[in-house]
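INFO  loader      accepted 1 record
INFO  loader      residues=212
INFO  predictor   begin
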Amino acid sequence: MAEKYADLILSQPGYAQLQTRPYMRANIPLDMSMFQYNVPGRKRPLIIHAPSNPLIKGTDFIKRTMDELQSEGVEFDFQPVENMPNPELRKLLTSADIVVDELYADTVGVLSTEGMATGNAVLTHYPADFAGVPKDCPAVNITEKNLKDILRNVILDVAWRCDLAERGRKFVETNNDSIKIVRDTLSYLEQGQTFRYDFYPDFHQKALIKGS
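INFO  predictor   done
INFO  writer      dumping tokens
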């Protein structure tokens, strides 16, 4: 019913499996004035992992990887966070260097977006083509196989880490500023569906090809 009467649909493939109509990508809106941007550039970085659901986020695997790196002599501080109010988390993110987010995600989530807004190098899992994440997204795509090597590199290579952080802030300013998202949404409505959608469900594409 929602699809039938909607003038515009904003969604993402990860939760649009049953949708039949084409749609634009739903981006996470941020009030940028709420996020203080800071790139510490420390030689010994502070790493944050704040899972809303430890099982889905791969928390156990991430913690084991952190332990392995520390046992190998890689120097960093690791702070796992649970049940912290968002205002406190935003302050913590501003003081941090690296955010390790989701290991099994299908897109760049809220914590990753907030991490980039506050000046962190962000590590998370996302199949960019599937999720329609813009090609210039500086969040580093991680898997169980590459997490350890990428973590080691982003910890030791301060210049690369800072570059990721700087590009991350620019990325969210371009793609996640709440005012821009509202303007884009109004623009889509004003165009009256004359634009090309970001996503076309497979069976919908086949129907269009057949002319039905």
